[in-house]
Specification:
Number of strands: 22
Largest sheet: 7 strands, antiparallel
Distance between the termini: 47 Å
Strand content: 25-35%
Low-confidence stretches: 1-10, 17-41
Helix content: 10-25%
Oligomer: single chain
Radius of gyration: 22 Å
Number of helices: 12
Structural class: alpha+beta
Length: about 475
Amino acid sequence: MRKPVATFVSLALILSGCGGGGGGGGSVVTPPAVTVTPTPSVATGCSLRERQDWAATQLREWYLFPETLPASLDPSPYATLGDYVDALTATARAQRRDRYFTYVTSIAEENAYYASGSSAGFGFRLGYDSAGGRVFVIESFEGTPALNAGIDRGAEIVAIGTSASNLRTVSAIMASQGAAGVSDALGPSTAGTTRMLRVTDATGTRDVTVAKADFTLAPVSSRYGVKLIDDGGRKIGYLNLRTFISTADSALRSAFAQFKAEGVTQVIVDLRYNGGGLVSTARLMGDLMGANRSANDVLDYMTYRPEKAAENQTRYFQARTESIAPTRIAFIGTGGTASASELVMNAFIPWLHADAALIGTNTYGKPVGQIAVDRAACDDRLRVIAFAVQNAARQGNYFDGLAGTMEASCRAGDDIAYPLGDPREASTKAALDFLAGRSCTAIATGGQGTLALREGARELLVPERPSTAQREVPGAF
C-alpha cells in the first residue's frame, strides 16, 4: 500500500508580483493553521508529471473557485510545474479573482523569509516610470549593500552593467525590453551577484559597484518606522510596517506601547508598499488598535468553499497590554498595498466608519488568501487560494481595491523627495490633514488595482518570477 503524502497546510495573505503588475501570493501562518492532510492520489516522486498530478489534486481539493478549474487538462505540453498551475487557474485569473495568487514556491526559501526576513539582494526597493523610461529607489533597507553604498530613497538608477565597459542606460533597456529588462539586468537574487549602477541623487551622479548579499529585513525601520509627530500641538503616532512577518510582532508591540505611554489616540499606519504576509501578525496589529473593542467584536471572518466549511474561522479582537483606542486612523496605501494590509484596513471600517481613511491611492485588491501545501521531498510548496476574508460587516469583495469600500479617503502622491514619515512628504501630509479634519480630495474608484504608487506612471518593479521576498516586499531587489 502506498503511504500518504506528508502535507503541511497553513494560512496566508500576501501580494505576488508578476511581470511588474501581476497578482498576489501567500505566506506561512502559525497559529492558526489548518492541520489537515489532503487525500493523496499520486505517486510521491519528483518527476515533473508526478508533481503536476499532485498539484492538480490539491487544487481540486482546496481551490476557492473549483468551478473554474478545467474538467481535465493534459499536463504534458507544460515545461514547468508553475506553467501548469497557471494554466489550471487561468479561468479565475480571467475573472480577476486569482491574479497569479496561486503559485509554486520553495519550502526552504519561504520558511527562511517568514521566520526572519532572510533573503539575498542589494537591499533596495525600486519603482519605475514606463512612460519616462526611468527607475527610482523608493526605499533602502538598513544593513544592506545598497544603503551601505549610500543609495537611498529618491535616488535614480540611470544605468546598469557588470562593469564600466558595458553600462547600459535604463532608458535604453526600458525602450527595448520594458520593465522586465530592468529586472533581468539587475541579475539573479543570489548572494555575490555584482552590478555597477550609475546613480543620480542630491549629491550628483556617480558609478557604484554593489554586490548582492544575504540580509535580514527589518519589518519596522530603525530610521523612520516609529515616530511621534507634533501636528500643531497634537501628538500623532506614525508607524511604517514593511511586511507582516513573525519578527514584526515584537516591533509592533513596542511601537504601540510607546503610543499608549504618550496618550496617542490618532495614528498614521503607513502600509504603502506592504504586500502582506502573516495573518497572525495582521490580527495582532488589529488587536493593538482595539483597546476599545470587546471580546465579542469581530476582527475578521475567514471563509472556505462550502465543503471545507469546517475550516472557517471567526476572529474576535483580543486584549493586548500595549493596545490603544484610536479615535481616528489614517492608513497610507498604494497599489503595492495588498492582502494582510488590506485585511487590517478593512477590519476597522465597521467600527470607525469615516474615522478610518485610506490615504494615497487605491490599494491592490486581494480579499482572498492561500493555504500552503508541501511536497517536502521536492521542496515544492503550492500556494492555493482557498479562503476569502471579510470584516465584521461581511465586507470583502474588494478585488478592485479598497478605495470603493473605505468610507473616507484622501488622494495623495508618493513623494520620494522626502523620507517616509516626514510631515512634508505628500501622503504623510495628507494623513495629517485627514486626522486634523482638514479637507482633501477623495481617491477615485473604478478599475482593478495595480502596483501603481501614485496617480501617474510610476509603479513598483517586480520580476515575472519573483522570489518569496519579492512577493512579500514588492519592488525589492
